[in-house]
């Protein structure tokens, strides 16, 4: 699943130009086409097609893992989920088999939402609060380490599922959570309420460090879903089970935590319960 750095890279490309396409800001929508109706979460199909016509793209923003295209009257919101991606192409380019929704612009370009597994969703909304108000804070915007510590110790959850819970922190996923925990030297099974202030501060700084580096590298390209980033070349533990830890040389191990494959160094991130695989993802 594309995580915060990958979604930020996509939003930046849509806003400023990139990934082989120009900026869409200022473009006027001619029409839209929904090729798989369940992709459209809200509103209904007829209302969506009518409302989006002739609107102009004003800006492109990100909140958590949501792509927010601010239009002249509404917000077009896209969540990529497991396998989504967006392309901006000239109209002479053919649509692809897994394209689920297409926005056609008046200047001869279109934006296509492609989603192999059909989990992604698109909304056309007048207000964002109803969709986004349950999201936790943006990790890169947290400046108060004490408040972050208090939020951690107020929970009693394993860190890996907690950090991936979008109501706790918005934008974190499997890759960047594993990487941040390794930087902080904290095992993914550690209970959040057991952290001290120093550990919480180290964890916050590690999260911000790995996300900033991920954005700098345009995200990570690890499968067919998202291509174009090179942060995969910087991985310390994720996807490296059986390889040497870059800090101590111990072989990286992989366990299942919250139903997700989880990579860690058993020495740098020592925990006596490292063989357990409890707690489902929140």
What's the short story on this structure?
The protein is α+β, with helices and mostly antiparallel strands and 282 residues long.
Could you characterize what this model shows?
The chain has helices at residues 4-16, 45-52, 129-132, 145-153, 159-164, 174-184, 197-216; strands spanning 29-34, 40-42, 57-63, 66-71, 75-79, 84-90, 99-105, 109-115, 121-125, 253-257, 260-264. It is of the alpha+beta class and 282 residues long. A five-stranded mixed beta sheet has the order 2-9-5-4-3, covered by helices on one side. Strands 1-7-8-6 form a four-stranded antiparallel beta sheet. Strand 3 (57-63) and strand 4 form a beta hairpin. Helix 1 (4-16) packs across helix 7 (197-216).
What can be said about the biggest beta sheet? Answer: 5 strands, mixed
| Strand/helix succession | HEEHEEEEEEEHHHHHEE
- The average pLDDT score comes to 93
Per CATH, which architecture of the largest domain? Alpha-Beta Barrel
Count of discrete structural domains: 2
Envelope shape: elongated
Q: Termini distance?
A: 16 Å
Give helix % range. 25-40%
Q: What is the number of helices?
A: 7
CATH superfamily placement of the largest domain:
MutM-like, N-terminal
Class from secondary-structure proportions: alpha+beta
CATH class of the largest domain: Alpha Beta
Please give the oligomerization state of what you see.
single chain
> What is the CATH topology descriptor of the largest domain?
N-terminal domain of MutM-like DNA repair proteins
Based on CA atoms alone, the radius of gyration comes out at: 20 Å
| Share of β-strand residues | 15-25%
Low-confidence stretches: 275-282
Widest sheet: strand order? 2-9-5-4-3
How many strands in all?
11
């Amino acid at each position: 699943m594309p995580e915060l750095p990958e979604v930020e890279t996509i939003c930046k490309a849509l806003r400023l130009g990139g990934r082989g396409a120009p900026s869409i800001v200022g473009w006027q929508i001619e029409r839209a086409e929904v090729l798989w109706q369940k992709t459209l979460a809200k509103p209904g199909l007829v209302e969506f097609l009518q409302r989006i016509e002739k609107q102009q793209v004003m800006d492109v923003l990100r909140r958590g893992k949501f792509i927010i295209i601010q239009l002249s009257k509404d917000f077009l919101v896209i969540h990529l989920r497991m396998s989504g991606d967006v392309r901006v192409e000239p109209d002479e380019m053919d649509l692809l088999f897994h394209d689920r929704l297409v926005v056609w612009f008046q200047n001869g370009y279109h934006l296509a939402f492609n989603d192999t597994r059909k989990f992604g969703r698109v909304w056309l909304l007048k207000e964002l609060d109803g969709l986004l108000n349950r999201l936790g804070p943006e990790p890169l915007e947290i400046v108060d380490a004490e408040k972050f510590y208090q939020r951690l110790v107020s929970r009693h959850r394993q860190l890996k599922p907690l950090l991936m819970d979008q109501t706790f922190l918005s934008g974190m996923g499997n890759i960047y959570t594993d990487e941040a925990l390794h930087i902080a030297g904290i095992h993914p099974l550690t209970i959040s309420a057991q952290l001290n202030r120093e550990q919480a501060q180290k964890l916050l700084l590690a999260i911000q460090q790995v996300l900033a580096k991920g954005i700098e590298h345009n995200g990570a390209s690890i499968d067919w879903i998202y291509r174009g980033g090179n942060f995969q070349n910087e991985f310390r533990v994720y996807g490296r089970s059986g390889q040497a830890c870059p800090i101590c040389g111990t072989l990286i191990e992989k366990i299942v935590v919250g139903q997700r494959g989880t990579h860690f160094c058993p020495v740098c991130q020592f925990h006596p319960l490292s063989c357990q695989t409890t707690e489902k993802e929140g």
